[in-house]
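Contributing: when you submit paired examples, paste them exactly as shown. First protein:
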Amino acid sequence: VSSSSAHEDCLEEVANLLDEKDKGVSDIIKNIYAQQAGNKLREDLLRGLRSILHPVINTLFVGHLTMETVLYIWDQYIIGLGQPSYNCIPAFCMAFIHLLREHLQICKTPGEVEVMLRSQAPALTTQQFQKVIKQHFYTNLYKRLNKQDTEVVSLLDPTEVGFAQPWTHLFRKQLSYQIHPKERRQARREEEQLQRLVQETKRIHLEQKFSFEEKLQQERHLRFEMQRKAEEQVSQLQVEMRQMMQQRQHFLDVYSLRRYVDQQLDLESFTGNLCLIESLH
C-alpha cells in the first residue's frame, strides 16, 4: 500500500465499485470535485477519491477511525498477506465512503469534505463496516482468500514412463500455490510497516489517554473549586440575610416603641384638654 501505482490501482478499483454499487455517491463526489460546471467525468471522481482516500490509504486508516475499527480492518488485511489475489483495501475504502454518504451530500466544496472527514469519520464503527462488507463484498473476498492456484508436478524420469514408482501417487494431488520469494519479501515489508503502524497507533492512543486523563483531572479540580466558591457565596448570602432580618426586626421594634410613645402623648394631651374644658364650664 505504499507505492503510488498501487494507490492509483486501488483508486481505480474503488471508482469501479462506486459506479457499480453506489452510483449516487459517485455522482456526489463528481459534483464536488468537478472542474467544469455540468460535467461529471470519471477524472472528477478519481480526483475526489484521490483527495479523500490518499491520506487514508497512506496510513491504512490510522488517525481516521477509532483504534477498534482500525484493528478490525488490519485483521482482514493481514490474513490475506499470503494470498496475492486477495486485497480487501479497495472494499474497505468503498465502505468508508459509502458510510459517509449522508454527510457527503451536504458538502459543496473539497474544503467542506475535509472538515466533514475530520469530524464524522472517527464516529464510524466496526459494526457498520462489517455490515457493508457482508452485504457487498463477503462472498468475493472469501473466494479470493481461499483460492488456491494449483499445478501438478511430475517427478518421473522420461525413460521410466510406464513404470510408475510406488511413491508417485503422492504427486498426483494438486499442490498448493507457493509464494514467490519477491512476494514474500514484499509481504514481509508490508508486515513490518503494519507493525510500525501498530506501535505508532499504540503510542498515539497512550498519548490521547494521558491527555484525556489530565484534562479530566483539571475538569474535576475546576468543578471542585467552582462548587467550593458557590458554597462560600451561599454561606455569605445566608449570613447577610440573617443580618438583614435582625436589622429589620430591630427597626420594627423601634418603630413600634415610637408609635406607642406618640399614642401615649396624644392621649395625655387629649385628657388634659378635656379637663380644661370641664373646668371652664
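Second protein:
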Amino acid sequence: MSTPLLLQALAVLGAAAPAAAGVTALRRRRAGAALGGREAELLAKIAELTAERDELRRTASCDPLTGVWNYRHLQLTLDQEIERARRAEASTVDPRPLSVLMVELVGFDALVAEHGRARANAMLRDLAQRLAVEIRSCDTLGRYGGEEFLVLLPDTAPDGAAQVAERLCWTVRRHRLTDRHPGEAADPEERSGLTAAIGLAVLPRDGGHAAVLLRAADRALAEARAAGGDCWRAVPPGGPAPEAPAGPDASPLPGKVSPGPGEDTLTPHATTGGPRATGDRP
C-alpha cells in the first residue's frame, strides 16, 4: 500500500475511534442504569419480603382474638426467662427471681349469656389490652387458653408480683362494658361484672422448671377460684395455700383486694389515684 493510501486509512480509523468510544460509553451507561434499576427493584422486593416475614412472625405469636401473645410465644418466652434467671443465679451473688401470674376471668360465661358471644369477645379483647398496659415493657402477657392469661414478670420478687396481682384484680373489677349497640341506653359507668382470680408462683421457690412452675401457679389459682375470685393466692413453700377462716368476723383472705377505711369497693387496698405500671419492683 502506498504512503498516501496508508495515511488516508489511518485518518479514517482515527476519526472512527472517538465515535466507537462514544458508543461504547453510551452502552455502558445504559447497562449501568439498567443494572441500577434492577438492583433497586431487588432491594424493594427484599424489603417487602422482610416486612411480610415479620408480619408472619407476629401473627404466628399473637392470639387472634385478644391481640396479646399466644400460648406458643408464652412457652418460648418462659423457657428463655427461666434460662436467663439460672445464668444470673450462677454468675451473680444476688439472684434474679422470675414470677408467674396465672389469671382467670371469673364471670365470663355469665357475660356471654347476657350479652352474646360476639360482644363478650369484644370486651375480652378490650380487657386484655388494658391488662397489657398494667405491666412493664419487659414483662409478658399472653392468653393461656379460654379466659385464662399468663403474666411473666422477670426480676420480680414475690412482694413485687403481689403488687402486680392486686393491680390486675383492680383493673378487671373496674372494667366497664364496651362495644355498646347504637342507641342503646345504658349507664356509662356500668361494670362488666368480671373479676380476676390469680395464682402466683416464683422461680426458684415454687419450681425450677416451666412445667413445675406452671403447676404451682395453677394450684394457687385453684385456691383463688375457690375463694370466690377477685383475689390472688400464692402457694407457700412445701404445701398448698392455707384455707381462710370462715364466718363474718374472719379476717380478709390472704391476697384479697379488700377496701380499707374510707375506701369504696372499687379502689384497691393501699392504692390511691389508680394503678400505675412504671418503675422497678422489689
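If you have annotations for the second protein, write them as plain sentences, like these:
The longest strand covers residues 98-106.
Strands lie at 98-106, 140-145, 148-154, 195-203, 231-234.
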